[in-house]
Specification:
Elements (H helix, E strand, L loop, with lengths): L1 E5 L19 E5 L22 E7 L11 E6 L2 H8 L18 H4 L9 E4 L3 E4 L9
Antiparallel strand pairs: 1-2, 1-3, 3-4, 5-6
Pfam family, one: Dioxygenase_C
Protein name: Intradiol ring-cleavage dioxygenases domain-containing protein
Organism: Deinococcus multiflagellatus
Length: about 140
């Protein structure tokens, strides 16, 4: 399985989109023998009209390493964690996110099932694990 993740920077800008160059805050990994992949990144920023989120895409691979399909979704963060992060620089330059989870159209349509259980703090960093079951049949 190939796993892709991507998100915006602290000020809400995506690399490689709308004239922004580069591939920052984007990554891909093939899962290990247990079906796991691990990513290390910064906390995502926010942009108008959307809750704080990280995109992910799962692509099953055949024996030749070619993708045989794809599933794309997003992971969301608890509002208490967002508030703690956005009170600190450089996130504080932009201020509090304008769209809480409860007002985000994607979150309201089942996104609560994609809410991360986050551990840590804004000084030492955060960790989160999320298991995804994908029916390939």
């Amino acid at each position: 399985m190939l796993v892709d993740v991507w998100h915006c920077d602290a000020l809400g800008t995506y690399s490689g989109v709308a004239g922004n160059s580069g591939d920052a805050l984007r990554g891909s990994q093939v899962t290990d023998a247990q079906g796991r992949a691990s990513f290390t990144t910064i906390y995502p920023g926010w942009y108008p009209g959307r809750a704080v989120h990280i995109h992910f895409k799962l692509r099953p691979l055949n024996a030749a390493g070619q993708a045989t399909g794809e599933f794309t979704s997003q992971l969301f963060f608890p509002e208490s964690v967002n508030a703690a992060v956005f009170a600190r620089a450089p996130y504080s330059q932009k201020g509090k996110a304008d769209t809480p989870n409860a007002q985000d159209a994607i979150y309201r349509n089942g996104g609560s099932q994609l809410l991360l259980s986050v551990k840590g703090d804004p000084v030492g960093g955060y960790t989160a694990t999320f298991d995804v079951g994908l029916n390939l049949g």
